[in-house]
Amino acid sequence: MRQRILALGAAAALGASLLLGGCSLFGGAESGSTATAETAAPTPEPTPAGEPVPNPLTGLADADYTNRRPVAVTLRTLEGAAPHWGLSAADVVVEGVSEGTTAGMMALYATPDVISKVGPVGPGRDLMLQLALPLNAVPVHIDKNIYAKNLLNTLAYQDLDGYHIGKAAFAFDQDRQNAGYREENCWYTTGEMIVNGLSNYGVTLEGENAPLFLFGERPAVEENARNGTTLTIAFSPDDSEQLVYAADTGLYAKTNADGSPTIDADNGQQIAFTNVFVLYASSGIKDDGYTRQYDMTGGTGLYLTGGAWEPIHWTKEDATGPLQLTDAAGEPLVVNPGKSFIAIWGGYYGQGLTLTGADGAEQTLPEKPALLESGISDEAAAAAQAEFDAQQRIVDAQEAYTDAMAQLPDAETALTDAQTALDADSENADLIAARDAAQAKVDELNQIIADSTAILAEAGIDPAATPAPEGDAAAAESTAE
Prior knowledge:
Elements: H1 2-19, E1 71-75, E2 92-96, E3 104-109, H2 126-132, E4 138-141, H3 146-155, E5 160-161, H4 162-165, E6 171-172, H5 174-178, E7 187-188, H6 191-199, E8 214-215, E9 230-236, E10 239-246, E11 251-255, E12 272-273, E13 275-280, E14 283-285, E15 292-294, E16 298-305, E17 308-315, E18 324-326, E19 334-335, E20 340-345, E21 352-356, H7 378-424, H8 429-458, H9 470-480
Parallel strand pairs: 1-4, 2-20, 4-5, 8-19, 13-20
Antiparallel strand pairs: 1-3, 2-3, 6-7, 9-10, 9-21, 10-11, 11-12, 13-16, 14-15, 16-17, 17-18
Helix pairs in contact: 7-8
Protein name: DUF3048 C-terminal domain-containing protein
Domain DUF3048: 57-196, 232-342
Signal peptide: 1-29
C-alpha cells in the first residue's frame, strides 16, 4: 500500500513538473529531460541622444543650448554712458523709453560665456522685463524702480542686482573714470561674475529656455524689392537712431543720432543685426506721473530683414507670456536666424518713425498706436511744450543778460587797453589783431544784451529791475527801526 502511495506521489510530482514547464518544485536546477530552452531577454534599444538645442535668441545652431538660461543685462543710456561694452556679443538688443526722453536699453545673451565685459550696467525697468521673463532669462542690473521691483517680487523671480550684491558680481572701471566718465557710467560685469554672483543665492544658469521667435530660412530678397533699407527711430527729439541695411553683409548697422556708428567699447565693432523689429505699443503715464506705461498685450509693428519690410501683428498674454508674431495674413511670422534689434515704440508726441527703400522712396507705415487713457494728446503735449519752451526762453535770456552785463566792463577795459597800445604803434599787426578781437568781444556782448532785453521786454520783464535780496531788505528794515 505504501509503495502505491509513493508511486502516486511520484506521478503527481511528474505531472506538476510538466505543468510548470520543467521547473524544479523547489526552485533548484533544471532537470535535463524536462527543461525547455530559456527565452532570451530582448536587448533594450539605446536611448537616442537629444538633438542639440539651437540658440533660442538667434535660431542659429552654433552650439548646444540645452538646459541653459539666457541673461538680460540692463544698460545705462543717459548722457555720458556711451560707448557701451558688450553690445556686439549680444544676441538681441531691446530699446524703449521708460522714463524721460532717452530710450533705455537691454542686451540679451543666450549664454554668459560670450560676455567678456558688458556695461555700463543700469537700473532695471519693468518694460524690459516684459521681454526677458518669458525667456526664463536672469535679469542683471544695478538697482531698479518700484515697478520692476514689484513685478519680480510678485513672481518670486530671482534677479542679480548690484545694489544688493555689490562687487560679488560687478566691477568698477577706474580707467574709464580717469578718462572723464561719471562714476555711474563705469560699472560693468562679465559672464564669470554673473555666474559667481548667482551662486550667492544658490541659483545657477541651468534651466529651460524658450525660442524668442519662430525661426526659419526665408526667401532671399531681390535687389529691386529692397523697400526697407534705412529706418530712423525717433524716441524723442533728443534721441534719434538709425538702422541702415548693407547689402554686402546682409545686416542692419546701427548708428547714433549724430550719424556716428554705434560701437562696442570692448572691441570697437559697429553693432549690426539680421532682423529689426518695431513693436507698436499704446502708451500713457503710470501713477507716479513720470514713468511710461505701455499696453504690452499686443499691437501692430514692422519687421525688417534682407533690406525689405513688412507689417506685423504681435501679442503677449502677460508679463511672462511669450511674444507671438504674425504676418499681414495672420500666419505665424517666420524670422530669419540671426541677431535682432527690437524697438518698443509708443508713437506719442515727440516720437517719430521713417523708413525708406534702396531707391530713397519713403514708405507708408501702419498708423501709430492709440494713446492709453493716461496718455497725453498731441495737442495738449504741444501746448505744454510751447509753454515750457517760452518759459525756458525767458530764463535763458535772463541768464544771458546777467552774464553779458557782468563781462562787459572787463571787455570794455580790454578794448581800451588794446586801443591805447595800438595808438602807440599803429602799424603793429599783432596789436591790430588784439584790438579787433577786443572790439569783437564787446560787440558780441552788446548784441547778447540787446537780444536778451528784447525777449524779456516781450514778456513784460525789465532785466535791469532786479529786486533786492530778501536778506538785504530785512537788514534795511532793521536799521530803520
